[in-house]
Amino acid sequence: MPVVEIENLTKDFSIGFWKKHPVRALDNLCLEVHEGEIFGFLGPNGAGKSTTIKLLMHLLHPTSGTARILGRPVDSVSMHKSIGYLPENPYFYDYLTPKELLTYIGRLFGLHRPALSKKVDALIEDVGLERAGNLQLRKFSKGMVQRIGIAQALINDPEIVFLDEPMSGLDPLGRMDVRRIITSLKARGVTVFFSSHILPDVEALCDRVAILNRGRLQEQGALEEILKVRIEGHDVILSGWTEQHLSDIRQFCDEVRPMGDRLQLRVNDPQKMEGLLSFVFSNKLELISLNPIRPSLEEYFQSLVGSR
Amino acid sequence: MVGRILAIAGNTYRENIRDKVLYNLILFALIMIFSSLALGQLTLGNESKVIIDLGLSGISIFGMLIAIFIGISLVYKELEKRTVYALLAKPVHRHEWILGKYLGLLFTLLVNIAVMTVGLALAMLYTGGIQAGGYVRLLPAVYTIFLSLALITALALLFSTFSSPALSAVFTFFLWVIGHFGADLRSFAELTKSAPVMWLCRVLYYVLPNFSAFAILDSRSILRGTGYLQSIDPWAIWWATVYCAIYCAFLIALGISIFMRRDFK
C-alpha cells in the first residue's frame, strides 16, 4: 500500500530581479513509496531532492501536480501529526537546550508532561546526546545538531519519516548511529523516506530507490535493479608473502604493489579472484582485507546522464 | 489550536528574554527614568511632572525600539536561519505560527513595560509628594503606551513577512512618525482648498495608523489632585483599545495572507 503518492509534481522557481523567468526545479515527478519500506531518494546536488521533500512538507507550493501522504493531501495539517521531518543542514533555536527543544516540539503535537518528559529523555538517549541534554544548541557541533534534528523528527512516533540528507556532517560513528536508528525504525514498521547522494548509505539501508537528476526521475525500483551496481574488481591486501609467491600471485592480478611487508593487489576478473583466494589459503598467506571496487554514485550519474 | 499558539508564543518569549539586546534596552530605559530625578531637581516645583513625563517618554521610546528591533526579525530571522522549516512541517497552521510569534512579542513587551513602570514608580516614590491615586493613574497611561506598542509590533510583523529587517525597520519607523500627525492631517484636510489634497489627506488619515489616538494621558492626568485638573476619560481609553484591536487584527491578517503564499526555498 503506497503511503506516499506523487503525481506529475512540478515546481518552477522565478529567478532574476527585474526580468523574472521560471527555472524548473522539479519536472513531472511521479513516485510511490510503500508502507514499511526504507526508500532512498538519490541524486547529485541540485537534482531536486530537497525541493521534492519540501513540497511534501508543504513548505513549497507546487506549480502543478499533486502529492498525498498517508492518503491525505500534503496541506492537511492533521496528516502532519503522523509524519516526522529532518530538514537538510538543519538549524534549530540555538538558545534552547535539547530538552527544551524537544519539549517545545512535543507540545506542538499536543503531548504533555509526564509522558512528554519520558519521551524526551528516551529520544536524547537514542541519539546519543545524554551528556549534552542541558547544553544550549549554540554550543553543538554539526553532528550533534544533526542528531537532535533526528530526535525532533521522531518525537511524535511518526508512521513515516522524511530525512533530508540525514548523514550530512556526521563522522563515521555518527553515520553508524543514524543507520542503526533508521533500521530500528523499519523494524518498528515506520516507513523511512531519505534523500542522499552517498551510495554506501543507500546500499546499506534501502529497499527501494528513486534516482533524480536535473529535476527529472531517472529510475525507480528495487536497489539492485536500478543501480545495476557493477563490481569492477577487487582490492586485496595480503601479508606474510615472500618473493617466491610473487610470480604466482602476479598471474591472478592486474596490479601488484608491494607496501613493506604487505602486498596491495587489484583483481578485475572474478575467476582470477577465485584462483587468488585458493592460492592465498593453500599457501597460508594472511588476508588483511578484500574490498569490491564499485563506481561511485557520481560516476554512475555521469554514465546515466551521458547515456540519455 | 490554542495550545500550539501558546507553545509558539512561549518559545518566542523565551527567545526574547535570552537576547542580550533586550536587557541593554531595558537598562538604558531605567537609566533614563532615574536620570529624570536629577533633571527634576533643576525645576522649581515641577519635579514630579518632569519625572513622570520623562519616565513615560522613556517607556514609550524604549518600548518602541524593542517592538521594532524584535518585531522586524520575528519572521525574517526564522526564514534566514531556516528554523521555521522543521516547525512548519509539524501540525502547525501558518496562521497559528504568526499569531504565536505576535503574542510572544506582546508578552515580552508587557513584561518589559512592567519592569520600566516599576522603575518609574520607584522614581516617583523617591521624589515624594505624589498621592496614592497618582500611582494608580500611572497604569492607564502605561496601558495606552502598551496599545501603541501592540500596533507597532503588528506593523513590524507585517513588514517582516515580506521584506528584510532593514527595510522593515525603516517602514515601521516611518509609519510610527507619520502616525503621530494623524490629527494634523485631518486639520489640514479641512483647511486646504485643493480637492485632491483634501481627499489625499483624508485617505491617509483613515488608512495610516493613528498613534495620536493613544496620547490620552500625560503627567497632568496622573497628577490630578495636586493642582492639575485634567481627568482621565475612560471612553477615550476604550476607543483606543477598540481601534488598536481592529487595526492590529487587520495588519496581522494581511501578514498571515502574505505568509500563507510564501515558498520556503
How would you describe this structure in keywords?
heterodimer, A: 308 residues, alpha/beta, Rossmann fold, Alpha-Beta Plaits, 2 domains, 6-stranded mixed β-sheet, 4-stranded antiparallel β-sheet, 14 strands, 31% strand, globular, B: 265 residues, mainly alpha, 78% helix, 0% strand
Distance between the termini of chain A: 32 Å
Please estimate the helix content of chain B: over 70%
Number of helices of chain B: 12
User: Quaternary arrangement of the chains shown?
Assistant: heterodimer
Strand and helix order of chain A: EEEHEEEHHHEHEHEEHEHEEHEH
Question: SSE layout and pairings?
Answer:
The complex is a heterodimer of chains A (308) and B (265).
Chain A: E1 2-15, E2 21-34, E3 38-42, H1 49-56, E4 64-69, E5 72-73, E6 83-86, H2 98-108, H3 115-126, H4 142-153, E7 160-164, H5 172-187, E8 191-196, H6 199-205, E9 208-213, E10 216-222, H7 223-227, E11 233-239, H8 243-250, E12 255-259, E13 262-267, H9 270-282, E14 286-293, H10 297-306
Parallel strand pairs in A: 3-8, 3-9, 6-7, 7-8
Antiparallel strand pairs in A: 1-2, 1-4, 4-5, 9-10, 11-13, 11-14, 12-13
Chain B: H1 2-17, H2 20-41, H3 47-71, H4 76-80, H5 83-88, H6 94-127, H7 132-160, H8 165-179, H9 182-191, H10 195-207, H11 219-222, H12 234-261
Helix pairs in contact in B: 1-6, 2-3, 2-6, 3-6, 3-7, 6-7, 6-12, 7-8, 7-12, 9-10
